[in-house]
Amino acid sequence: MFRISPLRGVGFFRLWFAESVSLAGAQVTAFAIPLVAVLTLHASAWQMGLLSAASSAAVLAFGLSAGAWADRYERRGLMLLANAARALVLLLVPVLYLLDALNLYVLASVAFVVAALSLLFDSAMASYLPRLVGKERLIHANSWVQGTVSVGEVAGPGFAGMLVQLLGAPLTLLVDSVSYLVSSATLSTLPKAVPERAADEEHEPHLKAVKSGLRLLRQDRVQGPLVIAAAHFNFFTAMFFALYTLYTIRVLGFSSFLFGALTMVGGASGLLGAAIATRVGRRFGVGRTLIAAFVLPGLTGLLVPAAVNVSKPLAMICVGLSAFFWSFAVVINLILCETIKQALVPDRYLGRVTATIRFVSWGVEPVGALLGGALAGTVLGIPGTLTLAAAGITLSGLWPLFSEVRRLRDVTPSPADGDPSTAPDALDTQEYR
Questions:
Q1: Rounded to an integer, what distance in angstroms lies between the CA atom of residue 135 and that of residue 344?
Q2: Of 153, 158, 156, nearest to 257 (Cα)?
Q3: In the 8-state DSSP scheme, what is residue 285?
Q4: What radius of gyration, in Å, describes the C-alpha atoms of the chain?
Q5: 151 closest CA partner among 23, 28, 254
Q6: Widest distance between CA atoms in the chain
Q7: Stretch 42-55: mean pLDDT, rounded?
Q8: Fewest CB atoms within 10 Å of the CB: 112, 144, 161, 255?
Q9: 42 close to 175: Cβ distance less than 8 angstroms
Q10: Of 19-23, 185-189, 220-224, 279-283, the least confident
Q11: How far apart, in whole angstroms, are the C-alpha atoms of residue 223 and residue 314?
Q12: Cα separation, 271 vs 100, whole angstroms
């Protein structure tokens, strides 16, 4: 459950509020940008793939560097910078729309820049949180953070659906711009967090810092398979969601409000997953729980393309059930994986390891999104491509199943940070019980 007492008195709830406001706005953006493309710019399936790929491509361009910066520069300052820049960039969409100068390429560019800034914010945030709360409180803190994500998924799409109906999709992005400013005002009240460094790292070259993150992850027998599984999962997820909005709006005939309401179902289940993730991991073991969390979204995702052959009320049930179990499993997955990483990785490597994980696991998304858009124009069509993507997601559970991950029972924080030569050994099943 969401325990308050372990997190009192350390400033966590100010950080949590700032993240909550930001994430709620981000949910509005994630909902509104595809609708701008579909409803305002009349995008095709291929163009939706391009739009999705543009957002994902930011990871390839800046993923590894963002982590190195988070380990070099003061982390609260990086979060404030990322928030301010995101607010300004998102303002371009409504302004250009009102000037009748908005097009798909501008929208894709905005999505790319916002994704890059979000990656910088997230890398700094992942490194800042353990410093603020201490490693012994991490699983409670991560449950609150992922619970916030789920609340955003509950409130954001429904709120965004109403705003799109009232204002139109482009003007809805004003809400997210304001949310980043509110988030920054709260973050500014928290203490700074200068990264810890060894003496020989004070003037470490940028490329060397990037490579050290790759090396640490490559030698880790637990997180290595999890990253490969996440990359597999995200490849097919990008293929799936490149077409998801187009499919539900045009093929199933859902309104933007109905689409948002069904997305809220997923947010509610994510909140449930965040509340019980700790207990589920302890009851069934972290490894087994993670295997199930990789498989379940793909199995229930098959309900979405199946909805094309049924009545509209039954189609709503299919999409709603898929959203429910998808978010439930993904939130549990994120909480456990994030806690494993933050508990065991030394502070001075946490930013670059976080970014390396995202570079590998998110870097495949542009390819998946483009492939989804391309396959939708073949004999498979949109429903067939969604079926293929859901089946591919299900197979991602094979990576943790046939690795050391299967043996994990519980997470035990590393007793010491260690140095680069010993850090890979600390990220080991011997540190789990």
A1: 9
A2: 158
A3: -
A4: 21
A5: 23
A6: 66
A7: 83
A8: 255
A9: no
A10: 19-23
A11: 40
A12: 40
